[in-house]
Design brief:
The complex is a heterodimer of chains A (113) and B (137).
Chain A: H1 3-13, E1 16-20, H2 30-42, E2 46-50, H3 55-64, E3 72-75, E4 78-81, H4 83-92, H5 94-105
Parallel strand pairs in A: 1-2
Antiparallel strand pairs in A: 1-3, 3-4
Chain B: H1 2-14, E1 18-23, E2 37-43, H2 52-67, E3 73-79, H3 81-86, H4 103-106, H5 117-132, E4 133-135
Parallel strand pairs in B: 2-3
Antiparallel strand pairs in B: 1-2
Helix pairs in contact in B: 1-2
The chains are: A alpha+beta (113), B alpha+beta (137).
Chain lengths: 113, 137
Amino acid sequence: MDVMDRIKEQVEGNPIVLYMKGTPQFPQCGFSSRAANALQDCGVKFAYVNVLADPEIFENLPRFADWPTFPQLYINGELVGGCDITLELHATGDLQKMTAAAAAKDPDGGTKE
Amino acid sequence: MMQQEIEERLHQALAPTHLEVINESHMHAVARDAETHFKVVVVSRQFEGHLLLARHREVNALLKPLFVHGLHALALHTMTPDEWFERGGESPASPECLGVARPERAGLNAEPREPGRSQRRRRAIRRALNAQVKTLI
């Protein structure tokens, strides 16, 4: 499958997807770590892609939504933003609302294969 | 110079009332004189009525040519003059890098021992995380 189709499938098949360097358990970048922490704090299930584990996605994700850096957070298939926007939304309480609404539509958090 | 280039582009396009471009490359695993990681605080009336995502897109678009010339990371804080005033002229600190292999942090060099309280706590956090996240890749 084309890499753009793979990314599209990931963000549309899962209500909340974080593209990050490393994993939430072992983040490899301070920005990714903070974004993952904010999502964890929201208490909803979320999917992630370790961009360091997939060179093709690492190369092409910036083109997908014309966003140059990692991490990138997608909710309901839409780019929400990078680390700074995610943290800002978390501080205002909006991230909690957005993730709760997205998770409510899909109570399994896209965890069904 | 990357820093100057960033400053000039943002100055020309956004007419900021306040602009800080800080080279934070030293906080990351790059060469000592690198110009790869920057924090940008830009306060402009032109952001009024624009969502955060749109503001970041505007700045990213202005700096897009620099990303192919070595710019790697941008911590972006985009505010209107009113928002900047409300924050008392403060912007959040950027994170330290986690990318360098630090065996002592990962506990790779640690002697095997009985799990202590902090280790049990870390394991509990990791177990909770494992249940909360779905690994796509």
